[in-house]
Amino acid sequence: MKKLKKLFACMMAVALTFAWMPIHIFAEETQDGKQSLLDEIKERGVLIVGTSPDFPPNEFIDSTKSGQDQYVGSDIELAKYIAQRMGVDLRIEASNFDTVLANLSTGQIDLAITGLAYTPARAQSMEMSIGYNMEADSESAGQGVLIRSADAEKYKTFDNLDGIKIAAQSGSIQEQYVKDQLPNTQLQSISSIDDGVALLKNGSVDAVATSEPTGIQYAENNSELMMMEQEFDISAEYAGTRVGAPLGEKELIEEVNKILEDVNEQGLYEQWYEEAIELNNNMTSITATNFFGTIVQIVEAFWPQLLQGLLITLGLAAITVLCGTLIGAVFALIKMSKNKLVQAICTAYVELIRGTPLLLQLWLFITVFSTLSGGNMPMLVSVIIALIINSSAYVAEIIRSGIQSVDKGQREAAKSLGMSNRNTMTKIILPQAVKNILPALGNEFVMMVKETSLASTFFIGELMTVNTVIKSATYKSIEPLVIVGLIYFIVTFTLSKGVKFMERRLSVSD
User: Fold this and answer.
1) Which of 142, 220, 338, 360 is paired with 209 by a 20 to 30 Å CA distance?
2) For residues 95 and 459, is the Cβ–Cβ distance under 8 A?
3) Is the dihedral of CA 456, 148, 134, 274 positive or negative?
4) Can you spell out the DSSP letters for 335-389?
5) From the centroid of its chain, how far is CA 484?
6) pLDDT at position 286, please?
7) Coil, strand, or helix at residue 250?
8) Partners of 60 in beta bridges
9) What's the CA gap between 231 and 211, in Å, rounded?
């Protein structure tokens, strides 16, 4: 019972430490006399803008480019203009829509420029700029419902939508419109419009709430889809797209408003918007009308991106397992030490990491590392560290169980022969333990290949990020998933066969 109490106390201490670190850091930064974010941006010489590049033509990815140049669209041009007027460089931090809003609240980005529309809830959680894109179609102008063409006669008006399942992006203005104007429908929250279109095409939902231009683009590239004629009623308070800034940064949002006034006066955004539509239309070159023909054309058009995504996925998994093994080995040996306190702390670490979801850990560590580095740590590095920490906990248990699986009698026999503890471990125990450990480490590598897909939340370039890029470029949702799924299967199937082959070889050597 005393051991259990000690273990519980240690686990609580570790948990409170993780929870306290970011809170403490943020608390220190909000003390009186803190430098304004606008001054900080000008001092560092870089404006960090968060965006979700899966919403063409506002923001999307040009697969023919790389690095910061791959992010294109009318909102990206606006971000460049704001940075230019401030006299600083621009850095785009891409992630999904929910992550952009979360990063803004935690201070990991300076501005959110991602097709934001005004809602009362958003206005309470961030500083919102004046409206721009007042004339062109935007997230808050021309809002409608995407349906299957086969349902055109059934769903002529909103009155016909009672009881249906309708998807809307979580936290978006479309979700608010569905709640207010279609209260009798069943709302299905989604992370991106791409996901909603996939659900619509496979029949999981009956409609998708989306902006008019985005819905039209999907309909033009998917003959089985169409936009309803009736649109949502848009209140004047929701007019225009907005720029978001961290809550309390009045000086920064005032500077942005001055720049937006100039943009609106010159009609710059409408020019960028038309150019983005043209660019996006030129990128869409999938002409096949059947499923397999579409897959072939996507592979032909995007094989360099798919190959790069595969290499990044395998690289992430390899680095994670290699470094995780080294760290895990240390924790495994500590767990078997005679020092009860150190052993309890190590056990608490392993159990805490193994007992929490990987996605939660990615969020936590990325937030902490970004805060500690003042936003200068690359997202990829933060993701790798978080994956290594996660893997080390599992590897620690693999190594510990492998060492303890060796018969105790062999250790006793070695002692009776006068061998030291060090020689016993290196010459007797470890050689046998390695045979038990290697297959399990191989399985950990296979698992990590699949778990890297969670990193797509932060757009770091692995296979699931490539899937999002292809969907945004082609307006196809099912076919890219099938292609990426097949690549994952081929890789994991090959690795699994390699692990089994290794197990057979080790058993023969026994």
Assistant:
1) 360
2) yes
3) positive
4) HTSS-HHHHHHHHHHHHHHHTS-HHHHHHHHHHHHHHHTTT-S-HHHHHHHHHHH
5) 16
6) 74
7) helix
8) 72
9) 10
pLDDT of residue 375: 67
**When comparing pLDDT for 373 and 31, which is higher?**
373
- How many angstroms from the chain centroid is the CA of residue 162? 34
Split at pLDDT 50, 70, 90, the class of 171 is confident
Question: Do 63 and 47 touch, CB atoms closer than 8 A?
Answer: no
Q: Which residues contact 500 (CB under 8 A, 6 or more apart)?
A: none
What CA–CA distance (Å, rounded) separates 484 from 463?
Answer: 7
Residue 90, SS3 per DSSP: strand
**Close Cβ partners of 206 (under 8 Å, ≥ 6 residues apart):** 147, 148, 151, 155, 161, 164, 165, 166, 200
How far apart CA 233 and CA 59 sit, in angstroms, is 25
pTM of the model: 0.75
Kind and range of the H or E element at 22?
helix 2-29
HSE-up (13 A, CA, CB side) for residue 24 = 7
Please state, as a whole number, how many other Cβ atoms lie within 10 Å of the Cβ of residue 491. 18
Does residue 231 sit in helix, strand or coil?
coil
Tokens standing for 25? 């850091």
